[in-house]
Structure formats: C-alpha cells, structure tokens
Amino acid sequence: MNHTLLYIDPGTGSMLFTILIGAVSAGYFVFQKLKLKLKFVLSGGKAEAADAEKLPYVIFSDSKRYWNVFKPVCDEFEKRGIDVEYWTMSPDDPALSQEYTHVKSSFIGEGNKAFSKLNIMNASVVLATTPGLDVLQWKRSKNVDWYVHILHQPGDTTFYRMFGLDHYDAVLISGEYEEKQLRDIEALRNIGKRETCLTGITYLDTMKARLDNEKMTEGPLRSAPVGAKLPSTGRYAPPCHIGEKTVLLAPTWGETAILSRFGERIISALVNTGYNIIIRPHPQSFTSEKEMMDKLQAKFPESEKLHWNRDNDNFDVLKSADIMITDFSGVMFDYALIFDRPFIYADIEFDKSAYDAAWLEEDMWTLRILPSIGIPLKEEDFDNIKDVIDKAVGDESLAAGRDRARAETWANPGRAAELTVDYLVKKHGELN
Length: 432
Prior knowledge:
Shape: globular
Oligomer: single chain
Strand content: 5-15%
Distance between the termini: 58 Å
Helix content: 25-40%
Number of domains: 2
CATH class of the largest domain: Alpha Beta
Number of helices: 15
Order of helices and strands: HHEHEEHEEEHEHEHEHHEHEHEHEHHH
CATH superfamily of the largest domain: Glycogen Phosphorylase B
Structural class: alpha/beta
Largest sheet: 7 strands, parallel
CATH architecture of the largest domain: 3-Layer(aba) Sandwich
C-alpha cells in the first residue's frame, strides 16, 4: 500500500478542520434551535425556560500565563457572589486549583478540541484576551450574545496581528489613545463600531498592590533597601546589589526581537560583564522558535551566573533585577510603571507589516513613548554593554517620562477589576 497517498499537508489539514467544524457547528445550531423551540412550547411560551441553559458569563483563557489578567476579575465576581465560568486551554492553569464558590474553572482541552467547544458555546457575555476571533480557528458562536476583549498589557490596540480585534463586540481599554486607534481602523476597514470601556489594566493593579505591601529586605544593598522609598522623590530604589548586578534580558518573540536578531552575540556580551544574568524569553519563543531556543540554551547552559527563567509569575524576577534589557515586549511597562526604573531597549527597527499598526500612518504609542522611559542600546554598543548597564542603573533622568506613560496608558489605577465586572454585569443586563 502506498502510504504517501494518506498524507495531508498542514495547510490542507487546517482547512479541512475548519470545514468540519463548520459542518458540525451548523448541525449543532439546528439541533439547539429545535430543542429551544420545543422547550418554549412545553413551557407555555415562557422565554426564560427556553434560554435556561445559556451561561451568563464565560471567561476564556488560551494560556495559563494570562491568569494574572483574569484572577482579579474572578476575585471580583467571587466577592459579589456572581456565578461565572472560567474556561482554560492549559491543564495546569492556576485557576483550576483556586477554591472559589462562584467561579467554576474547567480545562476544555487543547488545540482543536478546545476550539470545537468554543465554537458552539452557549453564553451571554464572553471575556477573553485572545486575538483573532473569527479569523482563525476560533469562530464566533451563534449562541453567544457578546464578545469582550480585555488587554493583557498596556500599549497599542494595533500591536496585534492583523484583524486581531475586528470581530469582538467590545474592547476594554486602558488609555484614551487606544480608542482612537480602534476608531481609525474601523473607518479604514468599514467595520462596525466596537464598544469601548476605559477600565484600566487588572494585573498592573495587582502588581502595584503587591509591591506596596511587601517588605523588601533581601540581599546586601549598596544604597537603599530593595523597594525603599527614595527620600527626595518617593520613588522605589533599584536593588543595587553590591559588587555584582543582576541583569534581566526579557525580549519578545519574532524576527525583529532581540534573540532572533542578536541571540548569541548579546548573550555572550552579557556573560562577559561578569554580572548575574537572567534570561526570560517570551513563552511563545519556546513554541514558535523552538530550534533557536534549543541552540541558545545548549550554548549557554544554566550556571551560577546565568539562569533561564520561565516562571508563570514575573514579579520576583522583575523585582530582583538591577536593570532590564528588552525590545518591544510589554514587560517594559511592568518594569517601568510598577518598579519605577529605567530600562535598556535594543534600538532596532520594528517591522509592523504583519500588525494592525501597518494600516495607520501615525506611529504606535509604544514607539512614541519608548525614548521617554528607556535607554537605547545600539548594536555597536554591545562590546561596551557593561558601561551602558552601569550608567543606566539608578538613572532617574527618565522619571518624568514614566509619569507621563502612567497617565496616558494606565487609567483608573486600582479599579480595573471592579470596572471590568461593572461593564460585564451591565452588558448582561442590557442583553437580557
């Protein structure tokens, strides 16, 4: 038997799966419609009985790494005594081990199994941080009334792959400039106007509260204790470890990211400083750039001075770093806005061709604010990277830029979860 005749290339396989899901979904919706009509008749024409199986709220997470975004929302639902379903594609999502009364967490499978369930879900309001709704395998269910997108980092709504937010009904934003970006895209593409609500960023609120509440006493310090308030500014002091600084390399992923462009060269330069080096790649790198990551980890194995960090929670690693080096990763805002420190960013050109930003003439807000909150690192500076690091640590010249960034991209600090649930509850009431 010629087994090659059974081969289906990935692209064709994906297309066939989409067709299959479409057929299954169509059959499911016909069945559901008949069932609801039957319930409606048997209940004497009471609409409430016919719609009894619809879930009022569903939170969907495609990865455990977004638990920091959703936990404050789940906590707020629990606090109010409102029932909500939390569906996750990660079998080890921290949500699954939480002891809630009103939040029911479920692992819905991975890949196609999860999308099959999502595509026929029966819910009133769905909250998610996953882009690409109705673009790739995740299709809008005919039995869902309202899809709401929640941001998983401050910054641009155009920093998504093209058409990432087009098919959501609403977007919860953290800065007024983000609404302008959404409206500009809508006008250019002639798509429906999405609702917006200025809520803020849930996980930033949690990180700030955590930092304020912790007594930072770890390690010998050159000046102030870790997290101590500077007398003149009220700002948090960097760790400033005596003798050996800790440098965190925290890039994003993709062709223009640090590891893709300068992987071996920049890591070698950092190792040569003699400082403690922590490398925290973007989680997607281990999936989409696995071959590169395997090579880098083999060439630069764990040692007393070098550590590869993959913690789900980035709080401790950010807190421990005297300085961070990044590119276009959203972690720059965590470091600058929460820990109130300057960072170093690789001065490389961002290729926006695959992103919604390519549709707009105006530069992304992230690129406009970057020089005000970070210190550029040019390729020719790699050989002198120790000097760049030493100069950057404790540099307070960018403090005003960080204040400006907070004002523009972090609305309603401390209230994001409250305002998010307010919106969801209000919208559910309107729909029902």
